[in-house]
Amino acid sequence: MHGSPRVRDLFFSSGRDELRTRLRLPSVPAGLTHLFTDFEWHGLAARVDDLLDINLVNVLVAGWKKHREVREQLRVTAADPSRTVFVYIRSHTLDSTHHPSIELRSEGRRLVELSFPIALTFKIAAVELTLRGGTICEIRSEEVQVRGTVKFENTVILERTLSKVRLPGRIVLDPARPQSADSFRNASARKSRSDSPGTPSPLPPEEARM
Q1: Fewest CB atoms less than 10 Å from the CB: which of 73, 139, 163, 203?
Q2: Given this model, what pLDDT does residue 199 score?
Q3: Cα–Cα distance for residue pair 16/14, rounded to 1 Å
Q4: Are 129 and 86 spatial neighbours (Cβ–Cβ below 8 Å)?
Q5: Distances from the Cα of 50 to the Cαs of 16, 87, 102, 126, 162, in angstroms?
Q6: pLDDT value at residue 168
Q7: Residue among 74, 77, 78, 71 at smallest CA distance from 189
Q8: SS3 of 60, please?
Q9: DSSP state, 107?
Q10: With contact defined as beta carbons under 8 Å apart, do 74 and 134 qualify?
Q11: Please, are residues 22 and 158 in contact by the beta-carbon 8 Å criterion?
């Protein structure tokens, strides 16, 4: 899927100019004044953009893989590659946390590491997952809403209130491409219920491939 949505898209509709305007970095911490001028410190805003370059679909897939029935059926389809399983999950919530950081080094030693934790909560009306060969190979979703924060250490510097995020109604995943990475290990599902495919509500026709 070309131009697949990123976590940065949840916080910015345009580009780096909007980031510099909206990012609320606190003053230079007292312990770092010997490393940064105020001008250099606020120049970090452009670097935070790189930290938000996280594939949004991978975040969701990692959370669904924590769901009990999805986990069980992934094992079933891995053992029998000829088998296809559809898992329908009604209204549910996914929480995902990430801990990117910026490390400053000089002359072979670390000067400081700055932490920018990201917390996201997705409210999903319903989703149908197609499982084959031990992977999630297709996603059909209804409305997805998300709220989130980005912090510098314990200070919120970016915030999104709960609102709808536009995703293609049908996403076909590339089985040759990894669906999640170590940075998504903390994604978890809560308050979710899984049903047999039954007769899901109509899903949007848009399609994308990853």
Answers
A1: 163
A2: 34
A3: 7
A4: yes
A5: 10, 34, 10, 31, 23
A6: 87
A7: 71
A8: helix
A9: T
A10: yes
A11: yes
Place of tokens 């991978």: 58
Burial of 48 (0-12, 13-18, 19+ CB in 10 A): buried
Q: 116 with 48: CB under 8 angstroms?
A: yes
| Residue 100, CA distances (Å) to 26, 27, 85, 172 in order | 18, 20, 35, 28
Between strands 207-209 and 170-172, the pairing is parallel
List the Cα angle 105/109/115 in 5-degree steps: 50
pLDDT, residue 209, reads 56
- The predicted structure's pLDDT at residue 84: 96
Q: How many CB atoms lie within 10 A of CB 61?
A: 23
- Tell the burial category of 145 from Cβ atoms under 10 Å away from its Cβ (0-12, 13-18, 19+): middle
What is the C-alpha separation between 33 and 45, in angstroms, rounded? Answer: 17
User: What's the CA dihedral at 26, 27, 30, 34 to 10 degrees?
Assistant: 120
At residue 17, the pLDDT reads 61
Give every residue of the chain whose pLDDT is below 70, as ranges. Answer: 1-3, 14-22, 39, 175-210
SS3 191: coil
